[in-house]
Write a structure and sequence with these properties.
Helices cover about 15% and strands about 35% of the residues. By secondary structure, the protein is mainly beta. Bound molecules: zinc ion (ZN). The site of zinc ion has 5 residues, from loops. Zinc ion (ZN) binds next to loops.
């Protein structure tokens, strides 16, 4: 496995000023007691052993100005700051209402007051590359360079990578040992190291010798961006590679001839079976209109969607269909249309998925659709600036060699250098 990572502060405005002072040793003037709510315990219960009845009601009223005391979940962290005097005096109480917000409660001459404290975040950039041995999941999970990122954040990053390339690659069936990836991921990180938001700025996946690149483009800077290839064409395609977004395995591929396990005869299998647990959501792979829906003796609960340019898709054996849809319903790509089941002629839970072009069955795994819409001409100038920047960040990362990146941009954005 080849891997490496560099943490970089991307924007000068995010760089905190650090003043280093010589240490002063003194006995602590305060003691902080950290409690957490247990099951069925209210904040009132927690305060009842700490404050008199009057202060208890005041503190709850003060908290209510910032957050709902009823919504506090078991595990909510409550910090009490006491003086070291005898008897100790409660200085303030801090309730962590969610990862990004804490409410500080403090006594004043006119009773308890509250203030909302937002957790500060810094923006950093994670550069990483690796070779795939079994799966993208396995490779990114075990990437030594990503050790500073917790498992939940790493899982989000992997889902993001899969989303970026979901129109071009089926991550289960088409990934090969020796494929490799590299990506530049920008995130907002809290002081405890957890991530608030993150998205990929640029990524490359080399799949069976074919290089796929995706570059984030957000012309309005409002976070509602999307991905384009280096030529400025959207990575989106008319059809997704897979109707199932979660983990699955292919139990039966596309063949022109196979032995049917129930009918005990040799028949063509004009689709792909995606084994998945009952209830796994099934996504429409493209925009279209439902032309058939209901029970079929072989396909069980099934849906057929008609798309543009003579394409149809079929989804079978579902346990149930999504509510509120019927023949004639307009469907968008990625809409949930039903749930995996084993209705009709099925030996186990799976989704039977078919694609037809003008009535002719096609293997969904090998159909390659033309590139998506290009960058709108009005946005072209912004695209040129953003794409050059994001591609240069990616090109910093050379597979198989030490990472030594220094990227300087005219507008003051800089990076650190680092080696693997
Ligand atoms: Zn099938």
């Amino acid at each position: 496995m080849i891997s490496g990572v560099v943490l970089v502060l991307l924007s000068t405005k995010d760089v905190p000023t650090v003043v280093i002072r010589s240490p002063i040793y003194a006995s602590p003037a305060e003691r902080i007691e950290v409690l957490s709510l247990i099951q069925n315990q209210t904040l009132g219960d927690l305060f009842s052993g700490v404050l008199d009845a009057n202060s208890q009601s005041e503190i709850i009223i003060a908290l209510r100005q910032q957050a709902s005391p009823r919504r506090m979940r078991p595990g909510t962290e409550v910090s009490l700051r006491w003086t070291q005097r005898d008897p100790p005096v409660l200085r303030d109480v801090t309730v962590k209402v969610n990862p990004d917000e804490r409410v500080r409660l403090f006594p004043t001459v006119s009773g308890w007051k509250s203030e909302l404290l937002r957790t500060p975040v810094i923006t950093d950039t994670v550069w990483s590359a690796g070779e795939i041995e079994t799966s993208l999941w396995e490779s990114v999970y075990s990437n030594q360079g990503l050790q500073d990122m917790n498992m939940n954040d790493r899982a989000e990053l992997i889902l993001e990578l899969e989303k970026v390339f979901q129109w071009q690659v089926d991550f289960l069936r088409q990934i090969r040992s020796g494929d490799f990836y590299r990506f530049v991921f920008e995130r907002e990180v809290r002081p405890d190291g957890t991530m608030r938001t993150g998205h990929i700025l640029s990524a490359e996946l080399v799949n069976r010798g074919r290089s796929l690149k995706a570059i984030w483009f957000d012309p309005n800077g409002d976070g509602n961006g999307t991905y384009y290839d280096p030529d400025g064409n959207s990575v989106r395609r008319a059809f997704l590679k897979s109707p199932i977004a979660l983990r699955y395995r292919i139990s039966s591929g596309f063949t022109s001839n196979r032995f049917h396990p129930i009918l005990k005869t040799w028949r063509a299998h004009r689709g792909v079976d995606f084994a998945a647990s009952i209830g796994t959501p099934v996504r429409a792979t493209g925009n279209g209109v439902i032309v058939r829906l209901g029970k079929d003796s072989a396909l069980g609960n099934m849906i057929e969607i008609q798309h543009s340019n003579g394409w149809n898709t079929r989804y079978g054996h579902m346990s149930r269909l999504a509510s509120g849809i019927g023949v004639g319903s307009r469907i968008q790509q990625e809409d949930i249309i039903g749930y995996v089941g084993m209705t009709g002629l099925a030996t186990g839970p799976h989704l039977h998925y078919e694609m037809r072009s003008h009535g002719n069955p096609k293997d969904p795994m090998s159909v390659d659709f033309p590139a998506g819409d290009p960058i709108p001409s009005d946005d072209w100038e912004i695209w040129e600036v953003q794409s050059i920047k994001n591609l240069r960040l990616l090109d910093c990362l050379q597979i198989g060699s030490n990472i030594n990146c220094t990227v300087k941009f005219e507008d003051g954005i800089k990076s650190d250098t680092g080696t693997r």
